[in-house]
Amino acid sequence: MKDYFLNFYTSKIYQRLILGLLALLLVLFQGSFLQSYSLETEDNSPGFPVVFDHITLFNVYESNGSLSAQERATIITRRLNTIANDSNIEITDDKFDLDDRGNVIVILFDNKTLITVTADDAVAETTSRQYLAEQYLKSLKKALRAYRRERGHFYWVIGLISTGISLLILLVILKIFDFIFPYINSHIERWQGTFIPSIRIKNIELLSADKLTQIFKTLIKTVRIIVTLFILYSFVPFILGFFPQTRKISNVLFDYLIKAVTTVLSGLVGYLPNIFVVGVIIYLTYYTLRFLKFIFNEIETGNLHFTGFYSEWAQPTYQLLSWLTIMLAAVFTFPYLPGFDSPAFKGVSAFAALLFTLGSTGVVSNTVSGLVLIYTRAFQLGDRVKIGDSVGDVLEKNLLVTRIRTVKNVVITIPNSVIMNSNVINYSSLKRDLKSPLILHTTITLGYDVPWRKVHQVLIAAAQSTNYVLSRPSPFVLQTALNDFYVSYEINAYTNESTKMHDIYSHLHQNIQDQCNEADIEILSPHYSAIRDGHHNTIPAEYLPENYTAPGFRLDPVTNLFNQNNHNHNSVNDSVESHGN
């Protein structure tokens, strides 16, 4: 036993199991540190944006007199829209001006106030008031010029040309997809059996190379669909962004896309610590199962032995411990799954538990009965058993049902709970466990006129001439009853072939008939009646002498009967007369 554990200690399974335990300890101590990272950034800025033509030009942070920062941003936006939408107003550089009034700098357009830049605004932006005013002025000029330029006829032509070019690029990309993805699929098919082998654990094939290839091809197809939908969705707001009239819709669609991608990436990165924990649990579970399989395979083959633990218990115990290990791993994994604390997850879990509770009563009963049958060793595969009224060989036994095949080649499935409530007669267990042969017996009844020693001799000879009956120990006869009209003789014979019981009984009965006939023994009881005078002997003709003839009836004529009666009457009269004299 020490050598097997030493081999396992130096094996890769043991090393990887230890590595997984160390990783789990790392998770326990570092999990909270890893969960502190996130893609999300908080914007604590108290400013209010000045949005013009769906573009944020700058933020207003401070109030000015009775106007709040929000009111200032709204007024600036309204003034810009008024200037931009008035086609009679030309937007040229000479109409913009900066007016430094000591405590404030006013940005003018056509001698009208657009923005007032205060010292508080400069402090909020951590710059000088003059520089801030110049930056504001530069942004305003650029935005107003772009607004007018984009609404010209020439820009529509540019937008249409850009749309056409973008459509061509889209078609080229989709055409490239039509080449790349089939090319990848063809390589995956060629890699089947080489770079994509079957996944096996020793001789057990968990996933064939063909199925694994189909999984990779399905994965590539899914990636193509996702990428194609992403490009098509991005193409729509991209085209709408060429035209100012639809740019708002374009921005909204882009915002939706960016928020969706950001949410997914943020959730994925935020979930990375949980993924790591789940991976470690799966890693440990896998190598724990391999460790258990190693131990119980050694027990099953007889290389590893524990007193009181039978080899046929190895696989059922391994399956039971495997299920317990997987269930324990699931319990540890569930808290790290996304949405574990959500009401929907809890509701589905409660509903599933309710269904399992209501529908598993019979399953639990059969499972418990199956475990009891396994560990009580009531029978094993191949044993000849009698369960209730069914006699046959055990084909299969599991935690739920047992299947037996009768001598008529009929397969009967019996729930384990039914077996627990029935008597189980095992005809094979003594031969398997104690090397003791099975005793088959049958009873014959004969009249008192037949010598019992002769009957014993005949029955033992019949048993010894029967196939599959052992000569040692010798067959023996028991006289089980002395009845009113006959004696019961029970012939007992030893055999090691419990699965041939029916053939042995049939041959034994045939031999008993032959031996009795040869010994001139008539089997007339228990239910046999005949008028023996004049009847043919019941022994078959081949066992009777060649000159045997059936005796006839002995009948007297009626006249003899009357003469006999007259003779008796005369005798009586003579007696009476002599007495009278």
TrEMBL record:
Please give an example of a GO cellular component term from this record. Answer: plasma membrane
Transmembrane residue ranges: 154-177, 225-244, 264-286, 320-338, 350-376
Alphabetized, the UniProt keywords read: Cell membrane, Membrane, Transmembrane, Transmembrane helix
Query: Which coarse location class applies to the principal site listed for this UniProt protein?
Result: membrane
Which residue ranges does the record assign to the Mechanosensitive ion channel MscS domain?
363-428
What kind of membrane protein is this, topologically? Multi-pass membrane protein
Top-level taxonomic group = Bacteria
The record, for SUPFAM superfamilies, names: Mechanosensitive channel protein MscS (YggB), C-terminal domain (SSF82689), Sm-like ribonucleoproteins (SSF50182)
Q: Name one GO molecular function term.
A: mechanosensitive monoatomic ion channel activity
* Biased composition annotated in UniProt, kind: Low complexity: 562-575
Report residue spans for region: Disordered. Answer: 562-581
Q: Which InterPro entries match?
A: LSM_dom_sf, MS_channel_C, MscS_archaea/bacteria_type, MscS_beta-dom_sf, MscS_channel_2nd, MscS_channel_C_sf
In this protein, which residues make up the domain named Mechanosensitive ion channel MscS C-terminal?
A: 442-523
> What is the annotated localization of this protein?
Cell membrane
What protein family is recorded? Belongs to the MscS (TC 1.A.23) family.
UniProt xrefs under PANTHER family: SLL0590 PROTEIN, SMALL-CONDUCTANCE MECHANOSENSITIVE CHANNEL
**Protein name listed in UniProt:** Mechanosensitive ion channel family protein
